[in-house]
Amino acid sequence: MSTANPLVASMPEKRTNTTAIFIIGFLFFIFGFITWLNGSLIQYLKLVCQLKSDVQAFFVTSAFYMAYFFLAIPSSIILKKTGFKKGMAFGLLIMAVGSVVFIPAARERSFGLFLTGLFIQGMGLALLQTASNPYISIIGPIESAAKRISIMGICNKGAGIISPLILSAVLLSNATGLEKQIDATTDVVQKEQLLNELAARVINPYITLAIVLVVVSFMLYRSPLPEIETENDNDAVSQKASGNKTSIWQFPHLLLGALCIFLYVGVEVMAGDAIGVYGKAMGMPLDQTKKFTAFTLTAMLIGYVAGVFTIPKIISSKKALQISALLGIAFSVAVYITQGYSAITFIALLGLANALMWPAIWPLAIDGLGKFTKTGSALLVMGIAGAAVVPLLYATLKNKDGINMANNQAFFICMLPCYLYILYYATKGYKAGRNKV
């Protein structure tokens, strides 16, 4: 079977794949670095903005990830006009704008402005994700797409391990002592001064981030990244791939895949961003909980490395997704029946269960879309909004008056149904409406 993809612009295959994988891998590193800063920001902004509950604090993830829901379809329209490379460069510039918004937000200690900056960053990432995920899927044979996406995941989660450690070291240095000092201060002026000094810590990191994003945008625009054409309605290959269908709504496996992405990203962010809040709710000090996100991402990184060496040579994407879902179910049950650091360990291990889900779901969902690839990818990117909903549901359940739900009970109720659906998609859902398996 040929390893070339007929949708790739004409150029030597080896050069095409090597160039694309290197450049897109670097972009995924940036995605991961920015995305997984949220775990540190949740705890940081709760302290700086003196938020009263975890529900408020989880609006950090909601603002960031809801941008995917609102901007995914417009992103596909932009990509149709600009192509993949220019669209990704534009997305980086939008993210830079969002980073700059953190400056006035910090100076005013405005939670609303912080959320605005996060939403703008999410806008840029929606455009980048809508372009980069289908790009890396169809740059080579669909059978090995999960392997390529696993390589991207290594770049993404490698950055994700580093970013919260760096940001928490800057923003939450001596966090436990600082938190106690702020809580103990009764003088309003002195308390405001302490909070303003803490808020100012975020300015330099985000100025640096904005500059880096602008530079990378220019470099990407000037790069030799090959373009992929998926919109030629007269192309025989594209017509054959999509079966001459007229709408993305005629692909049930895509629609079920979008729901699968919604639930998967929700549990991924729960395991990564909520783990610190979970530990804090059990009385663990902030100096410890600020590092918990890195534990989950380390487990994910191990899973991605396993995917690179096993898919598709040893196991298929479908089998990897089935195993991952079963691990997710098992670890969720383990969190429910344990307490303390044992529960934290099982939450971190959910990173291992989650690692191969995105690489497996994405190619299964877009396989056979042909000319609808960009629009279908936008629909899948909309599913990333699950990260805005599932963690917020968890925070609401464990803080709702009258429910009195234990921390582990709320976590279990949010996670288990998600993994059960992912298991369904891995066994039957991906075949819906298709003539072949």
Provide a concise account of the structure shown.
The chain is 77% helix and 0% strand. It has 19 helices and no strands. It is globular.
Model description:
The protein has a single domain, classed as Growth Hormone, Chain: A (Up-down Bundle). The model is unreliable at 1-15 (pLDDT under 50). With 437 residues, it is mainly α. The chain is built from 19 helices and no strands. Helix 4 (59-108) crosses helix 5 (111-138) and helix 14 (317-337) packs across helix 16. It is globular, with a radius of gyration of 21 Å.
Total number of domains: 1
CATH class: Mainly Alpha
SSE order: HHHHHHHHHHHHHHHHHHH
What's the CATH topology label?
A: Growth Hormone, Chain: A
The CATH homologous superfamily is termed: MFS general substrate transporter like domains
Summarize the amount of helix as a percent range.
over 70%
* CATH A-level architecture: Up-down Bundle
Number of strands: 0
Rg from C-alpha positions?
21 Å
Proportion of strand residues = under 5%
H/I helix tally:
19
Distance between termini?
Answer: 18 Å
Average pLDDT, rounded to a whole number, is: 86
Point out poorly predicted stretches. Answer: 1-15
